[in-house]
Amino acid sequence: MAASDLIPSLLKYASLSAAIAVGLYATLLGLLTTEAVQSHVVYLHAIQMTWFKDLNVPESFGFLRNQVTPFTIQTPDGEQLHAWHILPVELYRKHEQFLVADPAGLVSDVTARLSFQLLRDDPEARLIIHMHGAGGTVGSGYRVPNYRALSAGQPDKIHVLTFDYRGFGLSTGQPSEAGLMDDARAVVDWAMNVVGIPPSRILIFGQSMGTAVSIAISHELALQSPPVLFAGTVLVAPFVDIATLVSTYRVAGVIPILSPLARFPLLFAYLQRFIRDKWLSKDRIAEYVRANEVNGEPYHLTIIHAEDDYDIPWHHSQAVFWHAVRGSVPGGISYDELELKKLDAQVDLGAAGTIMEWKTDHGIIREQILKSGLHDVIMGYPVVTMAVMRAFEAADPGFTN
């Protein structure tokens, strides 16, 4: 083929390829307006990542025999949530002989188990309700090291309750914002009314998608009359809301979904109308803080993020922190005003990142940005252990003694 013929052929091929790419992208956008596809894209619940392991055999994930008790919690609308009650390792060591003797596997009556009794009968016991991110199950990826980090500060006192939302793992149903809120209510109700743990001894922990659920349930209970306040809420890699998240999200940090459309505000605003589950964390966290300030209720919020998180950019945490602080200031505070205050009050830890604490007469809002930790690896870091201990100590200064 002559050079004069090659260039038009290449241009024709490039035009055809571009047209196909645009067509596929337009098809994707059309599919994203449907409820079923949105659900799978937002929650990724079909991606289990534990297909070849039995979630009713926690020992296969590295736990000691009966250190974890698998059981189910029923939601108000009849779904069955698969849950793990994880004993702290030092408490397990003290009762190892009796725990090993118990039958292993899924438990039909969790209240009859020694592990349950150890939680229920210890007035010094603390419970972390763990809400994981999108995709996977209670046993996926870095979640197992995360459980160990959560209880590491007091390995004979801090229990972990983790569960799969509806549609995830062995839990029944299909996920939605309303459904996950029902799930969170059911789990909190189980902790407070079945086990009998007061909220002052419960900490809510959420990562990624779990931060939206954590903020939502903390917000809802704080607005009750009388309000229900937990010892603290720890958020790792939160996001502002779903609309903002999809405008910045890239699969594996590379492939954009809707971020190219953010350059076209009218088109992007139109597509936002089709978003079913909005998860307005920025509004909920501001209202949560504002309600506690008005009611004079103590609260403790910790926001943690890594700068090298390519799933959810760390500027989401900066925005969530600002909205939380804004809720504590009568008349509010602008983002730029808060950034100016950070110049004086923020602590620079060098390679360990930065810390900014906003204190009021009633609460503490802490932003901790690490230089590294990615999206999931950070969950096993000591920074998580420290955040848990700060919250429990703020609620009860005698706990760490």
TrEMBL record:
GO-annotated molecular function: hydrolase activity
Domain AB hydrolase-1: 128-290
Domain of life of the native organism: Eukaryota
Alphabetic keyword roster: Hydrolase
Signal peptide interval: none
Gene3D superfamilies xref list: alpha/beta hydrolase
Residue stretches in coiled coil: none
UniProt protein name: Abhydrolase domain-containing protein
